[in-house]
Amino acid sequence: MIKKIIPWGIPILLLIGWQLFTKLGVVSSKILPAPTDVYWAAVHLLQTGELAQHVWISLWRASAGFLIGGAIGFLLGLFNGLFRTSEMLLDTSVQMLRNIPHLALIPLVILWFGIGEEAKIFLVALGVLFPVYLNTFHGIKSVDQGLIEMGRMYGLKGIPLFLHIIFPGALSSVLVGIRFSLGIMWITLIVAETISSTSGIGYMAMNAREFMQMDVIVLSILLYALLGKLSDVIARLLERRWLKWHPSYENVS
Amino acid sequence: MIKKIIPWGIPILLLIGWQLFTKLGVVSSKILPAPTDVYWAAVHLLQTGELAQHVWISLWRASAGFLIGGAIGFLLGLFNGLFRTSEMLLDTSVQMLRNIPHLALIPLVILWFGIGEEAKIFLVALGVLFPVYLNTFHGIKSVDQGLIEMGRMYGLKGIPLFLHIIFPGALSSVLVGIRFSLGIMWITLIVAETISSTSGIGYMAMNAREFMQMDVIVLSILLYALLGKLSDVIARLLERRWLKWHPSYENVS
Amino acid sequence: MKVVKTSHLELVNLQKSYHPTAVLDRLNLQIHKGEFIAIVGKSGCGKSTLLRLLAGLEQPSGGEIRLEGKPLTGLNREACMMFQDGRLLPWKRVLDNVSLGLKGDHREEAEAVLRQVGLDHKKDEWPAKLSGGQKQRVALARALIHKPSLLLLDEPLGALDALTRIEMQSLIEEIWSFQRFTSLLVTHDVEEAVSLADRVVLLHEGKITQNIPIPLKRPRKRDQSTFASIVNFILEQILELPRAAQGRGLEEETGRPFHAVPSVRVSNVD
Amino acid sequence: MKVVKTSHLELVNLQKSYHPTAVLDRLNLQIHKGEFIAIVGKSGCGKSTLLRLLAGLEQPSGGEIRLEGKPLTGLNREACMMFQDGRLLPWKRVLDNVSLGLKGDHREEAEAVLRQVGLDHKKDEWPAKLSGGQKQRVALARALIHKPSLLLLDEPLGALDALTRIEMQSLIEEIWSFQRFTSLLVTHDVEEAVSLADRVVLLHEGKITQNIPIPLKRPRKRDQSTFASIVNFILEQILELPRAAQGRGLEEETGRPFHAVPSVRVSNVD
Amino acid sequence: NSKSTSKDVKQTVRIGYQKNGPLIILKNKGTLEKKLQPLGFSVEWVQFQAGPPILESLNAGSLDFGRTGDSPPIFAQAAGSSLVYTAVGKPKSDGSAVLVKENSPIRTLEDLKGKTIGFAKGSSSHYLLVKALKKAGLGLEDIKPAYLSPGDARVAFEQGKIDAWVVWDPFTADAEITAKARILTSGEGLATDRDLFLASEKFAKEHGDIIKIIIEEIQNVSDWANQHPEELTEMLSTALGIDKASMKLAVERREYGLVDLDDEIIQEQQQIADTFYDLKMIPKKVNVAEQIYHVDKKDEKR
Ligand SMILES: Nc1ncnc2c1ncn2[C@@H]1O[C@H](COP(=O)(O)OP(=O)(O)OP(=O)(O)O)[C@@H](O)[C@H]1O
Ligand SMILES: Nc1ncnc2c1ncn2[C@@H]1O[C@H](COP(=O)(O)OP(=O)(O)OP(=O)(O)O)[C@@H](O)[C@H]1O
Ligand SMILES: [Mg+2]
Ligand SMILES: [Mg+2]
Q1: Ligand 1 atom 26 nearest Cα
Q2: Fold of C7-73+82-254
Q3: Can you give the residue ranges of the ABC transmembrane type-1 domain (chains A, B) (predicted)?
């Protein structure tokens, strides 16, 4: 029981400190609203149904982009990890693309995809692709060569070799990539949703930023934090399920 | 020799295709400038010394932020990977912070750090922190427990245990984190350099976007790609140097 | 007077070197179909390397391996190897480790072979929870269930106690005599070599220095006097080698008479 | 008539179970300072578990271990263990693996011990490039250089050929007789146990079923007749156990006379 | 011009709007849709945070029509974008201002020398600041610029990270009312800060009739807005999330409506362009007159 509470200790302490800080008037509440103000903003947005709508549409964009980008990143990582030729051909290009900021790309994205949903999903997919790629690639590269040899000796090749040996061996690293890309997913969305949006958490946050609705800004930050925790919990559940053979993950709570 | 060229095959092919594409007028050069136009823009910016100045100041911000954020992320990852209590206390908080987009944070950053260099360096540090953290944490968690046991048996504890066993065991994963964070570093900079900047590549890119200077936009994208490749080359050199015992990294070119 | 048998495997001037040092130096050996060969030799003399070459996991630096007359290139699909270090998949339970690579449902078969190696009660454990010898027996079970036409065993019983060891030896012999695959067994236990093999090959400094047929009937009994004298003869060879072979070529070895066990014909490197 | 020696280690009702199954069941044993104990037993009987308990790497489920009278909690800082699976650091070259954990400059010492295990020519190799037996010898070298007051060896010579094995045995004996640390050696080779140990402890189904002092003088010769008869006696005990111990408690074992080697006094579990 | 009149072909006109200005009023009133429906046109409203991305989208062909402030089109023109000016709003210089804190020692424009001043780069405030400084005999090089979007600048302003802030309504009004800001100078006599309505050249060429209707409707909602300040205040303060009191002030000091795109207006816009050229913010001189699309004269031409 107590173990379930401890991880929340620091967030809760911060919250209390913040409430005191603002209510004592150290900064103007116009600039940094108190948690209670944020709470009321949330209640208000919930009642009008706006919040649910924003979260919902963002979730849709996020998952579409995540699935596309994650799949491509995973496959690329796979091929480049498995085949030297493909690594030689593609790795340099991927590494070059990796560093291009989404924000700088927006003009080109508008050119290619217009200003509709495709553009947003493309950006999310692009953002998600690289962490998945990099960690898959690394995971596959570090699978014990001895085990692969063994599998080949026992008649595994192609897909069975991959399913039984390479994938499970790379899994813990792939999961790190997924975990990270779940974060990048939300971060990208805020950029994607600045392209001509009227909905989504990113829109909500950026709009609030333009019009300095500090309570909404803080609300959206908290929302991101919660979503972060949520995707982390999911990733951990997967880890617990898939890595139960691994002594280090055995007792992860 | 040929092996050195192949990785550049796709980028070069793209470049040629793009030049043909634009010069044949399939897209108007107002929308997408030809590589040669971009080249001239680069030459122009180089001659005025602007480009060097932008790159230089960005490099400075990037490295300051990278060092600070990388160090914090590494230490956090270390402690959370090594000590259950610290993991319990901090991991949830870090995972929550991880997902907050920089863009949404800008109002708060201005609140805390003002509009000077500190704000920019803080943002870069924040961006760099998480990939380093996550991969260090994962790396340490996946160090072979048997080797740690062995080390303790042979009288290692504390820092020597870390230096001789835990760190080398986690290194390949840490390097993935560093590689990734080098990318995030540039990506964050474009956001950081929208806060009241008059210099830096991010400023150059966003400024070009506001003023629709497509040649400069494309130039900055290329610049990011090159910087990406550069940091990748550095990471690979480190890998070759530090992981030469690892059969999978042995023949990496 | 040699009986003409089909030659399953043939090593022709086989060489392997890891950059500066030569590990195997122009080996020549013929192995017949269904034959059981034991390979003995000092630690680091190249036994595992030889098996890896036969499995096609390494490419020779010179010479070649002929598999039914055809030179071996790439992985040897007929072979199955039990590695010196076990190599169980940590993410598969014992039973799944054993049935790895089998097509179709082989659950019962896998359970049966696990029972034979005495580990049916561990079938749902993770490998990380097994003892050293248990891991080795799982690896052995996995090699035995595969019914290859060439079985390569690299010190399969190194971590087992005397009793379990003898049980496993009879298991291997039983399965072999039933299926008649060609077998190569690397072992450091000369008794084991003599009790299982048709021929014992002695590897020393990259060369085959002895190639001793074991003419004993099966099942072999360790308390037979011939058994003991063959074991002693081979041990002597091994113990003598460091002094004997130094500076001396293989040619000089060739004519050496077999004093200790006169009833046993010795064919040297063929 | 027992000579009163300082008792270095004492197991008192030591128990260890991995969730459903009990591995070690109320062990009692006294080990004197400087004594050399060999532990034999079937694969999976808990030998490694016992060593891990003594090293403080596992905590007992019941009973306790007393180290010079004080109960052991946490890591045993006096002990040094050679693990069954070697555990070389893949990122350190052989020499650095050997000198791991030593304070100060021990390069020469490490080179000397590597020479003793016959691996000075491999001192700058990565462990991944060593053969199975070479890895084991590096791990042995590492354990021997540390000069602990309690040395735990878990099948240190399992992957070695007969000749190298004997060389390593004399090396261990030599270093032990010089430094007089307390030694526990797990082995599946009864001859090895008899040639090295002051006492051989037989573990079976979680209990100590035999505790046999070896009264032979050192250096021991394998061709002595007493040597052979002790080995045979122990082997017999092991071979008989599966039948004999089933359903029978330790109490019934206690009174068993030692037929095969009458000149040897047997003290059972003390 | 048969294309736009044929009723069987379903077509859409894509309009980019921001959360302030007449277009959002037009969207909320829903009158444009009614007017265009008989012509076989439907309307797609696309919201943007700022002017430049609207022009970006116009240029890329993702939009047909949009509104921005006075400066962004100049940059677009300098970049060779093929857009045309179709209509111009009335001046709203009362709402644009240089703000300082109530108790700030800055009393005159001359006091701005050496101070840190926040404004959005390339926006109408940028131009206003240049003009204000010029009036005091200063140049941009005499102050420390802090390029910030309105929301970020507000935080910096309240925290005292910038000494002065150049911004437009409703930010000006909100700062005056809730952040104790003092107007150092408004845009009066310095810059007009008009709304500009732009269309892509292609759309203007093909669908002049549609543009004409849109502009008529903008004029209509502007008239409505001028007559119904309370309703407008209500509408905008919900849309922007800004205090009603602030919004009221902003609404009251602004007059909605369009003016003729005559030579005087073109000259005014050309002056902004030349100022930015002199500041080296655009690489080449632009000629505003080249890109003017005259709705009314169009029928006569054909
Ligand atoms: N971590 C663990 N979790 C569960 N069971 C374990 C664990 N470690 C060992 N065991 C079980 O405990 C028993 C004793 O293991 P141990 O490693 O001590 O055997 P051993 O005597 O060293 O055998 P061997 O000679 O084969 O190495 C085995 O049955 C093993 O499966
Ligand atoms: N990948 C490698 N790179 C370099 N040298 C190697 C490599 N693999 C093996 N060697 C060397 O080749 C020699 C033979 O190794 P091998 O593993 O075949 O020995 P072995 O006969 O199996 O010994 P053991 O009985 O100890 O297992 C050893 O000296 C070893 O150090
Ligand atoms: Mg070997
Ligand atoms: Mg063991």
Answers
A1: C133
A2: Rossmann fold (3.40.50)
A3: 55-235
